[in-house]
Amino acid sequence: MTHEIAVIPGDGIGQEVTPAATDVLEALDIDFEFVEADAGDAVKEATGEALPEETYELAASADATLFGAAGETAADVILPLRDAVGSFVNIRPAKAYPGIDAVRPETDLVFLRENTEGVYAGHEDRLTEDVSTLTRVVTESASRELAEFACDYVDTDEHDGFTIVHKANVMRETDGLFRDTVAEVADEYGVETDEVLMDAFATHVCLDPEQFDVVVCPNLAGDVLSDLAAGLVGGLGLLPSANVGTERALFEPVHGTAPDIAGEGVANPAAAIISAAMLVEYLGYDEEAAAINEAVEATLEEGPRTADLGGDASTEDVTAAVIDRL
Ligand code: ATP
Ligand code: MG
């Protein structure tokens, strides 16, 4: 079976780390057909559009999408692309790697963040010169869809249930609905859960991240808390992410275009390669995904390393080392 993969490198180091990721995928014994498309600042400059219609259509029809990064136009690119794949959950692992400087080297977390509503649903108004408002939307259906995904996600030997993070003591209607729905679905599935208020979570995760494993949260809380966890594991450079929908999904490194090093061939490809491992796992190839992750881990620990990790290797050197270990 051939899997059609939309490949959208975008701008800056997206142009360097995305080919590294597809090189690694090509080294696997899986039949991929890569179809490349444009998005971002450069194509906007050339055509007036940051996300050409054909790129949107490609992401909306391919089995999965691999995205690099977009510069100034990031919001005009990534929000519609998440919509193109029908994404309702954003998966953000935050894991420290052996040999890499981290504030909390014992951190190994996965955030499952609601990806369509909450305060990011876009209902903002300026009522008067003095007053602006925002309507926060939480639906039972989106909360249920996220919870069902979370229950399937933790249905392996690696996980015992998940933690629901919310602020239902203050936002009783919206986070109350979120919390009650997620807990109810978990009950139906026989999945164990516990709950932590989001402000308390911020403190607890800094002091003792090991007490958490899979964290299920509303949109804004997930955005902020997963960035906080990124800080605990040593910054954005190594972190992958996935935007998953019912039928397709989009995978991207958490970092941006890194304009300060773009074009030099020295970007660390690890986050893009780990994102590609998530893509492989999403398509059902668990062993191949684990093999990529092991090869990346060994390369991070033993080298070669790019400059951001204190080495002097190029993007290509690191990619070749990962492929060798595969
Ligand atoms: P953008 O607006 O596209 O997010 P940015 O200036 O915020 O761009 P980021 O890509 O978010 O840049 O990166 C922040 C810092 O981390 C930069 O100094 C960048 O060089 C570094 N960085 C990010 N990703 C990588 C990577 N893959 N390899 C090496 N350094 C990286
Ligand atoms: Mg940035």
Question: What can you see in these coordinates?
Answer:
- With 326 residues, the chain is of the alpha/beta class.
- The chain folds into 2 domains: 1-97 and 236-325, Isopropylmalate Dehydrogenase, CATH 3.40.718.10; 103-233, 3-Layer(aba) Sandwich (Isopropylmalate Dehydrogenase), CATH 3.40.718.10.
- The chain is built from 11 helices and 12 strands.
- It has helices spanning 14-26, 41-47, 53-61, 74-84, 140-153, 174-189, 198-207, 219-232, 270-282, 286-302, 315-325, and strands at residues 3-10, 32-36, 64-69, 87-95, 108-114, 118-126, 132-137, 162-166, 193-197, 214-217, 240-245, 249-253.
- The strands form 2 sheets. The chain has a 10-stranded mixed beta sheet, sandwiched between helices.
- Helix 3 (53-61) runs parallel beside helix 4 and helix 9 packs antiparallel against helix 10 (286-302).
- The radius of gyration is 20 Å and the shape is globular.
- The two termini are 22 Å apart.
- The model has no long low-confidence stretch (mean pLDDT 96).
- The protein binds adenosine-5'-triphosphate (ATP) and magnesium ion.
- The site of adenosine-5'-triphosphate (ATP) has 19 residues, from loops.
- Adenosine-5'-triphosphate (ATP) is lined by residues 12-13, 17, 69, 71, 236-237, 255-261, 267-268, 271, 306, 308.
